[in-house]
Structure formats: C-alpha cells, structure tokens
Amino acid sequence: MSLFVNGAQVPAPTDPRVSLLDHLREGLHLTGTKKGCNQGACGACTVLVDGERILSCLSLAVQFDGRQITTIEGLASEDGLHPLQAAFIEHDGFQCGYCTPGQICSAVGMAAEAQRGVPSHVTDDLGGTITLTREEIQERMSGNLCRCGAHNGIVEAIQAVLVQGMPA
Q1: Coil, helix or strand for 4?
Q2: pLDDT digits over 10-53, tens only?
Q3: Is 106 helix (H, G, I), strand (E, B) or coil?
Q4: Fewer C-beta neighbours within 10 Å, C or N terminus of the chain?
Q5: Residue 105: phi, psi to the nearest 5?
Q6: For 113-141, b where at least 16 C-beta lie within 10 A, e where not — what string?
Q7: What is the pLDDT of residues 118-166, one digit of tens each?
C-alpha cells in the first residue's frame, strides 16, 4: 500500500488508524495542512484527493491507497505560485494565514465542482453553466472558516482568478 502525495509516491502509515491529516503533518512533515478543530467543522485541513476537496482530519490515510493527494505544498509549480496562491497575497486573503492553505485547496476543488456543473444551495440554474457570483463563492466556501475576518479578501482573490477566467 502506498500513497501519492504532491506527485511523489510515499509510504502509507503503519497504523491504519492514523488520519490523513496526521500522516501528512507528522509522518511526511508536510505542515502546510493545518489541524484546526479536528472535527471537520473548520476546513483548515482541506486537501485535494484526485482533484476533489476533502477534510483530511476526518479521513484515514489508508483510505487513499493509490490515489493522488495534493496539499498546499503541491499546488505551486516550477514556474511559481498557483494563481490562487498569488491572488490570496494580492487581495490580502489572509491575516494570520492559518486557514489559508485549506481555503486555497478548497477553492481549487470548488472551481472543479463548478466546472463539472455541481450545484450549490444557491445555484439558480440547475441545468446550465454555473456562474461563480460572490454569493455562489461564499456558499461554496462556507465550510472553510477564517477567524481573522479575511473573508472579503478571500472571496476577492477567488473571484479574481476564477471569475476573470484564469485557470485554477
């Protein structure tokens, strides 16, 4: 059994009870993914598995045998920051920065969901193209909390990248 994290094959934990979050942070020393509530309520631990956002604190690492896991460390490329990472800086989408990795990973996953036509609670047209309005983004990102109050900058950063047509 092995996992693929940020494009590299890594060993799975020896204890099958280890959460993906704890394996990433303690086993693989990828500390960008944060432990917030450890109950799935805050979104600080959000990572991507095969492009879909998940809460790593609620998932066992062994569930992801052979699957592609992407953390905040894996979003940047050799050419530089991921567009959402750069937009968070430009639009002050963080203050303390603790929630930022989960927010960015969640936004990447949210963009993929919208492109696939997955509706949210506020989606108007269930059969058409989803327009990422401010309200739509806020609803889709509501599982990621920011205690500092950087929500306006977070939404503006996401809008700058996704609504203005820059690829996620």
Answers
A1: strand
A2: 999 999 999 999 999 999 999 999 999 999 999 999 999 999 99
A3: helix
A4: N
A5: -60, -40
A6: bbeeeeebeebeeeeeebebeeebbeebb
A7: 999 999 878 778 889 999 999 999 999 998 889 999 999 999 998 775 5
Taking 3-state DSSP, the helix, strand and coil percentages for the chain, each rounded to the nearest 5, stand at 40, 15, 50
CA distances, 39 to each of 5, 19, 21, 31, 148 (Å): 23, 11, 11, 18, 20
* Tokens 């990973």, residue located: 105
pLDDT digits (tens, 9 = 90+) for 73-92: 999 999 999 999 999 999 99
Contact between residue 158 and residue 166 where contact means Cβ atoms under 8 Å apart: no
Burial label for 17, CB within 10 Å (0-12, 13-18, 19+), is exposed
Angle at which helices 83-90 and 151-158 pack, to 10 degrees? 140
Strands, E assignment, the chain = 2-5, 8-11, 46-49, 52-55, 68-70
Separation CA 166–CA 161 (nearest Å): 5
Of residues 17, 101, 105, 86, the one with CA closest to residue 113: 105
